Amino acid sequence: MAPFSSVKSPGLVRVGVAARYLGLHPTTVRRWIDTDKIHAVQIGREARIPMTEIERLLGEQPTGRVVLYGRVSGHGQKADLERQVETLQAWAGKERAGREVMVISDIGSGLNPNRRGLQRVIDQAQKRRIVEVVVTYRDRLSRFGVEYLEALFLTCSVRLTVLHGEEEMTPEQELTQDLITLVASFSGRLYGRRSHQQREVVACVKTIVKS
User: Fold this and answer.
1) Domain extent at residue 51
2) How many domains does the chain have?
3) pLDDT of 108-154, one tens digit each?
4) For a designed S-S bond to 18, which of 28, 40, 49, 135 qualifies (C-beta 3.0 to 4.6 A apart)?
5) Which one from 5, 73, 142, 187 is the annotated catalytic residue?
6) Whether residue 130 is found in the same domain as residue 195
C-alpha cells in the first residue's frame, strides 16, 4: 500500500481501510469508535472515518488552510471579538506555523444559523478548501447544536479544534444565559436586532431572571 502521506483523497474511509493505515485490527478500530477514541461518521449501517482522524492518531498534521473563527453577539462586544482573534492568531502562529490561515468572524446571535461568517466556513468546508476550524470556545461557533456542525465538518474531513473547555458557570448561570440568548434572538426577529423595542425586551428579561 502507498505511504500514508501519498493518499490523495481527503474524504472518508471504511473501518478496514482505517485499520490498515493504523496497523490495527478492525475490531480494535470499532472499539475505539464506540469509546470515542476515534470520531466516525455513520453512513447507513456503516461507520466511516475521516482521513483527518487517521492523521491525528498517527501524529501527523494535515496540510491545508486553517480557519480561525470568532464571534460575539453584539456590536458593543467588538473589543472581545478582537481579543478572540488575537488569541486564535497567537495559537496558530505557534501550533500551525507555516500554514495558510483564514480569519472569519461574525457579530450576531449564536442561535442564528444564517450568520454570514458561519455560512462561509461551511461553504469552505464543503468545497474541501480547508482542513481545520479553530475557535476559542465551542459556543463561539454556535450556542446550540455544535455537535451537528462537527459531524458536518467530519464528513468533509475538517477538524474542529476548541482551544478552551467550557466556560465555568453554575447550572443557574448557564440557564440564565441561554434564556437571555433565546429572548434576544426571537425579539430581534420580531422588532429588528437594533430596535429600541428589542433592547427593552432583553433588558426586562435580564432584570427578571437575575432577580
Assistant:
1) 4-57
2) 3
3) 888 788 899 999 999 999 888 898 999 999 989 988 788 889 888 88
4) 49
5) 73
6) no
Angstrom distance (rounded) from CA 34 to CA 47: 10
Burial of 160 (0-12, 13-18, 19+ CB in 10 A): buried
Residues 205 and 74: their CA atoms lie apart, in Å, by 17
- From 190, 136, 156, 137, select the one nearest 64 (Cα to Cα): 156
DSSP assignment letter at 98: T
> Quick check: is 73 catalytic?
yes
H-helix segments, the chain: 15-22, 26-34, 51-57, 78-95, 116-126, 138-141, 146-155, 171-191, 196-210
Beta-strand pair 66-72/46-50: unpaired
**Cell numbers found for residue 144:** 446550540
